[in-house]
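The following block was generated as part of the benchmark described in Methods. Ligand: nicotinamide-adenine-dinucleotide.
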Amino acid sequence: MNETVLKPSVVRVPISLGERSYQIHVGSGLIDEASSFEDLACGQSALIVSNETVAPLYLDRLVATLIKRHRMVHSLVLPDGEAHKHWITLNLVFDKLLQLQCDRKTVLYALGGGVVGDMTGFAAACYMRGVPFVQVPTTLLAQVDSSVGGKTGINHPLGKNMIGAFYQPLRVICDLDTLSTLPPRELSAGLAEVIKYGPIADMAFFDWIEANIDALMARDAATLAFAVKRSCEIKAWVVGQDERESGLRAILNFGHTFGHAIEAGMGYGAWLHGEAVGCGMVMAARLSHALGLVDQAFLSRLESLVQKAGLPVVAPVLDPHDNVGRYMELMRVDKKAEAGAIRFVVIDVPGQARLQAVPDELVAEVIGRSCTES
Ligand code: NAD
Ligand code: GLY
């Protein structure tokens, strides 16, 4: 790697996965910088996959940068939204790749949020049994979480992210400038995944988020830069130890068991993923409290921070006739479930988490309380 051509403001976070190791670049103006993509595979053709919201903002600029590397730079603009993260949209990527007669050296670039990133990564994993791909995440959530670690996939009506593959990108390019156009609700959704890293791995980071939540909400550049960098470091540390989630990596799903049930139960897209995770973390912390693992003070701090980040803390009623039953039904489809038993990420002590099966009565009690508490 040639250090001298990189802009001095670029921070590089390594993710160590043997021959699948790569760098996460964090900085300003990176999509315009040829050096961001230096040393990567550069087949003759490239396909940038984006969506109808992100493409008008950033596609031309990425094309202008990549045309210096590839002879042909194609693009595909997908419909926007979680509701489109399914088989039919994914197939549009395969249609395009085949129509263009793309070969095994074609590089896919995911330009967008987690939906585009997850689908493009899955397409890259499948096309000709695997072509190289690069993540260019443009939401806070994608920069701090979804673009890192190689989880790719799509939703199924019966379960969130249930069809997919582990497939690592060649690089992740987090251009912080793209966050300036993000709607406020999406910024908050991203903060949910930033907050997540505190209770599961680093309470000093949690303290820092608490102290800087106003600056984060105001999009202060230096504060956002640190939040993205530290989040990527923690995720890289976890994934580096457990790439395919045989154990430790499950802690990254803190709040997600409840959250995925909310997303699926409300209809994909009604609650943003980050909103469901924010509320789900509060529910999972309540569960940890009910198990006697964390105290009320921790619970209150988490709830308050989630609220300050503009995220919901009252869970939605998914079925007025049998709300608990509906939550349970949806949570049994969770990937962490074993032999039909739901397992939750609980906080052992603040800064440390683990997977645990929890008695249904306790879960039911937390759901009941969370759907009414404010
Ligand atoms: P998203 O991809 O739907 O993006 C949110 C919205 O912001 C979209 O409307 C998008 O078009 C728009 N947008 C994106 N960048 C923008 C920009 N710079 N300016 C203006 N608008 C912009 O949602 P997300 O929150 O980025 O990602 C959520 C998805 O990520 C979910 O499907 C979730 O399951 C997945 N996810 C995956 C992982 C993983 O490890 N693979 C981890 C967490 C979440
Ligand atoms: N977002 C959860 C994971 O990457 O494992």
